[in-house]
Amino acid sequence: MRRMVAGTLLWLAAAGAHATQTLDVLHWWTSLSERQAANSLAGALATEQLAWRDAAIPGGAGVGAFKVLKSRVLSGHAPDVAQLIGPTIGDWAQLGLLLELDDVADDQDWQDRFFPTIWKLSRYSQHVVAVPVGIHRINNLYYRPEVFAEFGLLPPRNWAEFERVAAQLQRAGITPLAQSGEPWQVATLFETLLLSETGPAFYRRLFRLRDPADWQDIRVRRALERLRSLKRWMPQPVAQRSWDEMARGFARGDAAMWVMGDWARGELNSLGLEVDRHFGCTTVPGTAGMHLYSVDTFAMLSGGYVKLRQQEAFARLAASVPVQLAYNRIKGSVPVRRDIDPAQLDPCSRQSWQTFGRGDAVQAPSIVHRMATDEAMKDAIIAQVYRYFSEDQIPAPEVQRRLAAISRALK
């Protein structure tokens, strides 16, 4: 890992020496596969005589990167390009800090080439203010095919099947379900359970209407109770491990199943594992035909427009078909364009891309990964879910009351 990072830095330094301009890019991609994906974007920039000056900030779900971005903007040292996600794009655009990319979008016909949800996400006040680079699906269940084959098991389609599979695995001395105790990873598992219990329409309603009464719904209670009941299938105690550590553990065979976004698939690929050979990929029970999504997106900080040409070149390249295919193949996500050839995607990616393409009826924006709501509500939900998961004496109805109060206060 150290050799790879060192090699990356040398390559970037060499690229910078020959390029006429550099772009300072702030992001939170620090795992093995994320670095490889960033390198693919840097390589595309190099073809335009532009060097990617890396400003990677460690931290799952981008918590650290957002703090650094705010600090740099306030101190007058804003990056040229920053990774932003979901509603936060509008927040930054409202402050007049983001470059408008209308000319690039018009030239490349983004409105027709992008999925409608993606096109909407990239705009604020009728202007394009961000370039989306990949769509992640979060409601994935990964499993070990050789373990399932040994015991004659099939991937579970519903929770009754999951319980039977988990019980059989546990009796055989195999940990059924991998899980980290990091708050954002616990909440990521919860949002997949919430989607499983409610379906996309009610899931979206929780955040679009912010009716406190919706959080008292029996389906929310069932999702909470299932979150706690799944603990019996996890390693004990549930330790706080980074998601890429979890990927390495899953690759070693520490557990038979794992619920995580498809960045995990990119990481497993980077570790030498192949989908359908070394690991299987299906949907979380009860979410077949649904797409819990997050979108990797970059915005250009205006900064007096001194690097307008270079920033527009970044946006043009990042949205192009070749770069989209190369980047997403590494990252584990899928292209934001609907005009690609799906035959170029592996089976898991193809299913994700085709499902997302069915539109709003099957799509659900991630809470944890900044697609469904603002930072304040996201952080409050993660805190309540994590506390409930960690402290067994807290009843589910109490958490529902707290979530309703949060919704009421932040409406």
Q: What is the fold's blueprint, element by element?
A:
Elements lengths: L1 H17 L2 E7 L4 H15 L3 E7 L6 H12 L6 E4 L2 H8 L7 H7 L1 H4 L2 H6 L1 E2 L2 E2 L2 E7 L2 E4 L1 H6 L8 H13 L5 E2 L4 H26 L9 H12 L13 H10 L4 E3 L3 H8 L9 E4 L7 E10 L7 H11 L2 H11 L15 H10 L6 E3 L9 H16 L5 H15 L1
Helix pairs in contact: 1-2, 2-13, 2-15, 10-11, 10-17, 11-18, 17-18
Question: Could you write a compact summary of the structure shown?
Answer:
This protein is of the alpha/beta class and 411 residues long. The chain has helices at residues 2-18, 32-46, 63-74, 87-94, 102-108, 110-113, 116-121, 145-150, 159-171, 183-208, 218-229, 243-252, 263-270, 308-318, 321-331, 347-356, 375-390, 396-410; strands spanning 21-27, 50-56, 81-84, 123-124, 127-128, 131-137, 140-143, 177-178, 257-259, 280-283, 291-300, 363-365. Strands 1, 2, 3, 6, 11 and 12 form a six-stranded mixed sheet that branches. It has a four-stranded mixed sheet with strand order 8-9-7-10. Strands 4-5 form a two-stranded antiparallel sheet.
Structure, explained:
The protein is 50% helix and 13% strand. The chain has 411 residues and is α/β, with parallel strands linked by helices. It folds into two domains: 2-136 and 298-356, Periplasmic binding protein-like II (D-Maltodextrin-Binding Protein, domain 2, 3-Layer(aba) Sandwich); 140-292 and 358-410, D-Maltodextrin-Binding Protein, domain 2, CATH 3.40.190. β4 (123-124) and β5 form a beta hairpin. α2 (32-46) runs antiparallel to α15 (321-331). The longest helix has 26 residues, at 183-208. The termini are far apart. The model is unreliable at 1-19 (pLDDT under 50).
